[in-house]
Amino acid sequence: MADDGRVARLRLIRTPTIGPVTWCALIARFGSAQAAIDALPDLAARGGGRAPRIADRGAIEREIATTERLGARYLFIDDPDYPPLLAELDNAPVAVTLRGDLALAGRTVVAMVGARNASAAACRFARGLAADLGHEGIVVASGLARGLDTAAHQGSLATGTIGVIASGIDIAFPPENRELQERVADEGLLIAEQPPGSEPLARNFPHRNRVIAGLAVGTVVVEAAPRSGSLITARLAGEAGRDVMAVPGSPLDPRTQGCNQLIRDGATLVQSAADVIEAIRPIDTRMVRSPVSRFDPGRFDPGRFDSGGSAEPEESDRRAIIGLLGPAPVAIDELIRQSDLAPAIVAMALLELELAGRLDRHAGGRVSLG
After folding, report:
1. What confidence tens digit (pLDDT) does each residue in 120-132 have?
2. How far apart are CA 281 and CA 112, in angstroms?
3. Are 135 and 159 in contact (CB under 8 A)?
4. Are residues 173 and 274 in the same domain?
5. pLDDT band for position 310 (50/70/90)?
């Protein structure tokens, strides 16, 4: 990719109000990042707001220089070696920075997550499970957090591990895992969605979790309390159609209540690597070993629903859609049904509203008023 093209793509994704879904829709609609940038003022005005402040070119050029100085590189969603399972997510990250062996993401990957304040027994189990899975040719992905994540990486360093972090590629969190993070980058694969220098803010961890779940054919939760980040990862895995597995624990230990709840709700009970392998093999055969789909920008194009007419919404269309929106997230399909408008019209109107800062997107293809 030419430098100008890379700069324009990063300027677009680093612009406020533009997330992965919007970025892909703009590229599909206008053909290039620069053409999309040029169109932003008009689109935002049609949505009833001001154009978003586009990321500064100089700042992006400095970011690129820092990334290269750190020995990292960018991977864009339409690059041929972008992990195919991750690309299947509607909100897959448009651009990540990485260090290490990207080929690991093309193998069979299982995510392993759990409590930061994990018990010693759970950490020992996770370390052994990761090692056993590695000896079966399975790569283990986790988030380089304290507790279970650390144990999962330690058990799989020798056979293949992927660390996904919520900070920039140069920031280690927790600090005591700096050496482990360097080992993951040197011996495995380290992935960051945030730009270099970014601190691990709380709002970035759910984004990190979706990448962990998206890379894997299934997610194993070893120990987790109710309403923990590990359960968010499990939920995202289920929403992506991947297998959800959990290790049972004592009902007297609050750190295992989340796992027991997952099993009660239908997650696969895991006691050994054999249980994991049995659970993922049908998914592995269908999603990994068969021909895989690559990123298709056409699936994000609002005009893909159009059957010959115009996909440009009228002001009355926008008013009708805004009238159906509220603070509670609603499925886009429901907006199409209730508005009785063409899907292309609804999709384009939502894109305009988002660029104007008047719309928020949520998991599962849902939207709400911003």
Report:
1. 999 999 999 999 9
2. 17
3. yes
4. yes
5. low
